[in-house]
Amino acid sequence: MDGTVADYYLALVSDGDEAGATALVNDLLDQGIAAQRIIVDLISATQRRVGELWAANEWSVAREHAATAVGERALAALAVRTTVPPTRGRIALACVDGEWHGLPARMLAELLRLDGWRVDFLGASVPGRHLITHLHQTGPDAVALSCMIPTRLPRAHAAITACRAAGVPVIAGGRGFGPGGRYAERLGAHAWAATGEEAVIRLATDWPPPHVTDLPLPEDSFFLGDEEYTHLVRCRPQLIATAMDRLAAAYPDAERYNSNQVDSTADDIGHITDFLAAALYVGEQQIFTDFITWTTVVLESRGVPPTALRTGLHLIRDQLVDFPTATAMLDAAIQRI
């Protein structure tokens, strides 16, 4: 997509201009630009840029959400103009329970429709039991499952396991499944795709896999969610409360925090705990260390020094001294800062 067009579209979403964004999409379609290219090279690429602007503290959460709403409207305008008769089969597409980033999955739904699939787009945060009910009611040929944040991996595992039991193959997608989709296979998915276009190609060529219910699960998938993970999840509220109680003594600057800063700090400690739990569940330290590396950059852009994050990690570690895997992950993360 031409850089001038991309810059113009970014300016429109930045201003929350739904009418302007949909008009631009319609103009591009009138010019003969393929709908797939508009989805991938304009709407999707701009959404990634929006996330980068938020991470750099150049945009607020509210502005990011407004821009996402504009992207959804632009995508809807495109969908109205590009109806394709279904010729391939039926696929259910859902975001994992607790996963609220629905726009990437919505873009995949449109790419699949353009390729001739009948798509049941179930939306963001679909509880596993409702997904399985839908499968029994509609009998799709496959399930596409989106997970953008690793903290949702335990629920993704539950959904994948249930889909396999129902005899429906699963193709997974989203950053939450790790680099190269490495966690998708461990959780039992039959396939993974890095991008929407890759998913379209995969589903059009070597899908579905034969004898779905006979395909063995990876050996290490039977050992997910051990004692340390269970303890961390059960004690999450206590871990956060204790860390907050001890914060001022460990980090004196916190005594001057206003109520918003206190709330943000509690949220951050909660995120740390959740990512540690996900890393323990899958048995992948990289989930946690990558999150800490990213968080360090995000907090620094907001004027929070690395010392504050390091202190938070120590406050959690001090409560988990009897859990060697968790403390090893925390030590590795502390060294990253």
Q: Could you provide a short overview of the structure?
A:
Pfam families: B12-binding, B12-binding_2. This protein has 337 residues and is of the alpha/beta class.
Task: Please give the structural blueprint.
Elements: H1 3-14, H2 18-30, H3 35-55, H4 61-81, E1 89-96, H5 103-114, E2 117-126, H6 128-138, E3 142-146, H7 153-165, E4 170-173, H8 182-186, E5 191-193, H9 196-205, H10 227-234, H11 236-250, H12 259-282, H13 285-301, H14 306-317, H15 324-336
Parallel strand pairs: 1-2, 1-3, 3-4, 4-5
Pfam families: B12-binding, B12-binding_2
Domain B12-binding: 88-214
GO molecular function, one term: methionine synthase activity
For the residues shown, what is the average pLDDT? 93
Helix content: 55-70%
Biggest sheet strand order reads: 2-1-3-4-5
Largest sheet: 5 strands, parallel
State the total count of DSSP E strands: 5
Structural class: alpha/beta
Q: What's the CATH superfamily of the largest domain, by name?
A: Cobalamin-binding domain
Can you describe this structure?
The chain has 337 residues and is an alpha/beta fold. The chain has three domains: 1-82, Orthogonal Bundle (Methyltransferase, Methionine Synthase (B12-binding Domains), Chain A, domain 1); 85-221, Rossmann fold (3-Layer(aba) Sandwich), CATH 3.40.50.280; 227-336, Orthogonal Bundle (Globin-like). The chain has 15 helices and five strands. A five-stranded parallel β-sheet has the order 2-1-3-4-5, sandwiched between helices. Strand 4, helix 8 and strand 5 (191-193) form a beta-alpha-beta unit. Helix 3 runs antiparallel to helix 4 (61-81), helix 4 (61-81) runs parallel beside helix 5 (103-114) and helix 11 (236-250) packs across helix 14 (306-317). The protein is globular, with a radius of gyration of 22 Å. The two termini are 38 Å apart.
